[in-house]
């Protein structure tokens, strides 16, 4: 008897909630903007030097952001590439082991593409979850970097070129920053204007539907992992040139900050949602945060605690996750205080 | 493009089976066997080969050495099996958990006494288990990313508080006595590993909680609809992992009577390799603690062989990484073919 009333009420509430959810779901950059605001205001008050030494700040943003850009392409398809940190290290030692810098750079970038294809092979052909496949590769490649380098840092052959490479080139822009901007523009255009790139969203949103719509899902996954591999290798090459030596242990902290940048930037881990712009905002806020902390004399361990905390907060406050949590909480309350009803069964 | 549009794995394998029944059947049986029981044969073969071909493997000193190294990793791995079986991939944060337990055990007992130290370590383990468990179980966040962040937070806190310094236990204290105690070639920590394995094996295969963990790993939605507290299952799995990592840290710290923040580097990978090689599926739901113990023996013997053969750190890491990928590939292919 009271059931129809209850239904109407439920529908109304559903309506408001749905509108709020849609709004939340559309604004994927929300958390990145929030973090950026907090960080910028904090830095302006406590450490305004951050905004005068552009070279340092932009360099840091580019360091975090470049790897995060590649990750964005993979995560958009609902996959994950944990091997980025090791690709960076392998690319560095591969490059440094050639006498000619140009050949070395080409070899390193090719290595990145090949590793990306291998990752995709395990994910697509063998059918391993990408978390585990790239985790295995993370370890394998770290070992490979040690083997190639003979377990110690390798100097590059042309040190003068490396030194010149780390100098500002256009205004305060070092080649690293220019390359980062180019990569950002290229990926932004690719993912929003090019058909192949836009299909990444479809693959991540609903793989079955994408397949039925005739999108070659496997090839898109290959493309995504190869983009990630290439971009990580590029980051490794840039690091090696700037330091004039390749460090086989490079990249372990980049893993944390680049993931944090992509996830704070609103890229949904289940795929299908996110933007390169969000990743840029995420990388910018984390870059400013790191530079401000370093300038304030905060030690690296504490910086890792803070960035780890940001990542933990970002991954637990994902709007889609929160929706599920709110659903379970509602269910729990209803289970305790109201008559049992049929559940809607909408998780994941 | 057409070949990507239609078939599901099972339909595919059925189709093939109709065409070439013998080959498919044999492949099917081989994959199923590899994924389920391969590890037993591989471990025996590996030990025999090592005993025959590697100089210095079959000596009492070396075997004790293998046990001493295997015990802490094994204790971590049997605990982490619960997280893997629950379908949450792994707990990367065992690295800071092991090191923190060792540092707390030695540093706190130097200042107060061992009972306070153990209580403090249990408290730390509960914080890790609850933090990971709540983030993954309640907030439905990805376990890899959550434990990646707790790893950096945990290592950061540990290094910040200790300044990276090494802590030594008192020469004739109870920690030293425990670390050096032996029964024949068996260090006490190895016996501890066996006891913990038996207890956790019973919990996973016989208890209601263990059943819920396996059920949750194979079908989350069905388990939730059956009225199981899914958050409780995940939190429980992470707490068991954290407590096991703590005991592993005790064993590691006691063996050398020293503790330092960097002492457990690579533990997450070796534990994961042992679990997967043992035959526990990273897809969740299927696995056992006893198998993990076998996996630990395999990984430890393999590492020992590489060390005895003079292979460097890099090659060892490559081997463990390759082992993880190969073992998961076998599991994935067996699943695709419907053999397990």
Feature tags:
heterodimer, A: 348 residues, mainly alpha, 15 helices, disordered N terminus, disordered C terminus, B: 340 residues, 14 helices, 2% strand
Q: How would you describe this protein?
A:
- The complex is a heterodimer of chains A (348) and B (340).
- Chain A has 15 helices and two strands.
- Chain A is 75% helix and 1% strand.
- The longest helix of chain A has 27 residues, at 217-243.
- With 340 residues, chain B is mostly helical.
- Chain B contains 14 helices and four strands.
- Chain B has helices spanning 9-19, 21-53, 60-85, 94-111, 114-138, 143-162, 174-180, 188-206, 208-218, 220-225, 230-256, 267-277, 289-308, 313-336, and strands spanning 167-168, 182-183, 186-187, 258-259.
- The interface between A and B is large, with 61 and 55 residues.
Using only CA atoms, what is the Rg of chain B?
21 Å
Number of helices in the DSSP assignment of chain B: 14
Query: Total strand count of chain A, please?
Result: 2
The count of strands of chain B amounts to 4
Amount of helix of chain A: over 70%
Largest sheet of chain A: 2 strands, antiparallel
| End-to-end distance of chain A | 34 Å
């Amino acid at each position: 008897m009271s059931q129809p009333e209850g239904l109407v009420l439920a529908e109304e509430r559903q309506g408001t909630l749905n509108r709020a959810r849609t709004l939340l779901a559309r604004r994927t950059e929300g958390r990145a903007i929030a973090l950026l605001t907090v960080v910028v205001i904090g830095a302006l008050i406590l450490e305004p030097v951050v905004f005068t030494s552009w070279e340092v700040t932009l360099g840091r943003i580019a360091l975090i952001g470049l790897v995060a850009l590649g990750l964005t392409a993979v995560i958009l398809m609902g996959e994950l590439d944990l091997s980025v940190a090791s690709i960076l290290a392998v690319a560095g030692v591969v490059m440094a082991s050639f006498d000619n810098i140009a050949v070395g750079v080409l070899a390193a970038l090719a290595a990145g593409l090949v590793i990306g294809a291998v990752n995709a092979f395990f994910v697509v052909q063998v059918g391993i979850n990408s978390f585990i496949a790239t985790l295995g590769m993370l370890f394998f490649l770290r070992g490979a970097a040690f083997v190639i380098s003979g377990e110690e840092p390798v100097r590059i052959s042309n040190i003068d070129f490396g030194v010149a490479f780390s100098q500002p080139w256009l205004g305060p822009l070092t080649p690293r920053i220019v390359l980062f901007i180019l990569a950002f523009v290229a990926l932004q255009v690719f993912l929003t204007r090019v058909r192949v790139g836009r299909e990444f969203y479809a693959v991540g949103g609903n793989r079955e539907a994408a397949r039925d719509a005739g999108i070659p899902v496997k090839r898109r996954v290959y493309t995504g992992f190869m983009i990630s591999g290439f971009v990580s290798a590029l980051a490794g090459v840039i690091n090696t040139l700037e330091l004039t030596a390749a460090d086989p242990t490079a990249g372990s902290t980049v893993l944390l900050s680049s993931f944090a940048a992509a996830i704070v930037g609103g890229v949904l881990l289940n795929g299908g949602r996110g933007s390169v712009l969000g990743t840029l905002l995420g990388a910018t806020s984390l870059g400013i945060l790191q530079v401000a902390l370093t300038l304030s004399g905060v030690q690296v361990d504490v910086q890792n605690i803070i960035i780890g905390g940001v990542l933990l907060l970002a991954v637990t406050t994902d709007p889609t996750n929160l929706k599920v949590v709110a659903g379970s909480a509602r269910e729990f309350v209803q289970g305790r205080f109201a008559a049992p009803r049929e559940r809607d069964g909408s998780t994941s | 493009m057409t070949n990507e549009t239609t078939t599901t794995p099972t339909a595919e394998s059925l189709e093939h089976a109709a065409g070439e029944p013998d080959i498919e059947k044999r492949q099917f049986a081989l994959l199923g066997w590899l994924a389920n029981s391969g590890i037993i044969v591989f471990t025996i073969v590996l030990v025999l080969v090592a005993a025959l071909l590697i100089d210095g493997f079959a000596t009492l000193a070396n075997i004790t050495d293998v046990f001493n190294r295997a015990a802490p990793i094994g204790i971590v791995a049997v605990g982490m099996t619960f997280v893997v079986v629950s379908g949450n991939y792994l707990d990367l944060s065992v690295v800071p958990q092991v090191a923190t337990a060792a540092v707390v055990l030695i540093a706190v007992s130097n200042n107060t006494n061992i009972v306070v130290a153990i209580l403090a370590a249990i408290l730390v383990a509960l914080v890790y288990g609850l933090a990971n468990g709540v983030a993954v179980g309640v907030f439905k966040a990805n376990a890899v990313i959550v434990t990646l962040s707790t790893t950096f937070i945990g290592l950061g806190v540990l290094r910040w508080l200790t300044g990276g310094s090494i802590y030594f236990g008192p020469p004739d204290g109870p920690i030293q006595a425990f670390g050096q105690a032996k029964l024949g070639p068996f260090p006490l920590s190895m016996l501890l590993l066996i006891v913990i394995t038996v207890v956790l094996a019973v919990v996973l295969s016989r208890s209601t909680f263990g059943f819920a963990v396996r059920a949750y790993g194979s079908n989350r939605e069905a388990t939730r609809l059956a009225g199981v507290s899914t958050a409780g299952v995940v939190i429980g799995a992470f707490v068991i992992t954290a407590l096991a990592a703590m005991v592993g840290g005790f064993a590691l710290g006691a063996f050398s009577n020293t503790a330092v923040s960097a002492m457990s580097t690579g533990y997450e990978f070796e534990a994961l390799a042992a679990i997967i090689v043992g035959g526990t599926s990273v897809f969740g739901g299927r696995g056992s603690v006893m198998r993990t113990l076998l996996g630990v023996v395999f990984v430890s013997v393999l590492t020992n062989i590489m060390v005895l053969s003079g292979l460097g750190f890099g090659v060892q890491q490559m081997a463990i990484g390759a082992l993880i990928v190969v073992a998961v590939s076998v599991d994935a292919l067996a699943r695709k073919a419907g053999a397990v």
